[in-house]
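Internal tracking record. Fields below are filled automatically when a chain is submitted to the structure queue. Please do not edit lines marked as system-generated. If the sequence contains nonstandard residues, flag them in the REMARKS field before resubmitting.
Queue: standard
Priority: normal
Entity type: single polypeptide chain
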Amino acid sequence: MGWWGGAGRAAAALALRRLRGAAGRPRYSLGRAPPPPPPAASDLERADAWLLRKALEGGLLSWFRNGLLATGVGVISYVQSDTGRDAAYGFFILGGLCVSYGAGSYLVNLVLLRRPMMLPAPTAAANAAAAALLALLWLCALSLYIGRLEQEKGPAGPPEH
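SYSTEM-GENERATED OUTPUT FOLLOWS
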């Protein structure tokens, strides 16, 4: 047995008994009764929470749409000419900035506004995972596309003899 054996179990049991009190009920500080449950949310509060949630999601989708648009313009300019290739990388960077800023601001605001939006923690975690997945899918698609174009373009230097 390791250090968590008999002594560790005994210490954990003692700490649990202290927390739960003699009668096995949870104790509260200074012998007070538990606080009353919060009042139920009104229809107006629920509507405000819903509007806040939709505004936050709309912001994410707007930044993501702009990132996709910039990426699409980059793809078009990449296939037009050699000069367009230089501009295409700028559009790819702009698209990346839009997608990453949109996903980042969504995640930060989701953490900060979870309670006003009345979102349970599992729902907020699922929304955060969806935003991160969108950004990751954009990055994977762009990486695969650029890799394929570079492969089709061939070697950059002159052929060796």
